[in-house]
Amino acid sequence: MTGIYFKIHKIPMIFLIFIAITVITRFLVVDMRFLMANDKLNLLIMLVSILILSAAAGVLKFTEKKYQTQNEY
After folding, report:
1. How do the pLDDT tens digits run along the chain, 73 residues long?
2. Domain assignments of the chain as residue spans, ordered by start
3. Which of 27, 26, 65, 33 is closest to 57 using CA atoms?
4. Which of the four, 5, 10, 24, 43, has the lowest number of CB atoms within 10 Å?
């Protein structure tokens, strides 16, 4: 993340979304047995949050391509 910041002098928000998806996925992998046995509502909430973050990443990629200026790479 810091290497990208120093290379292009801005922080891409899509990488933060990818990190959030990775964190939620790791939590699901570690605690899947507990969530399936005890708390199915939290499991559903995490799955929906991954879907929402994925949609947000798609929207950011679409708008980045559509509204990119000539000065940006």
Report:
1. 666 666 766 667 888 899 999 999 998 888 887 777 787 788 888 899 999 999 999 998 888 777 776 665 5
2. 13-63
3. 65
4. 10
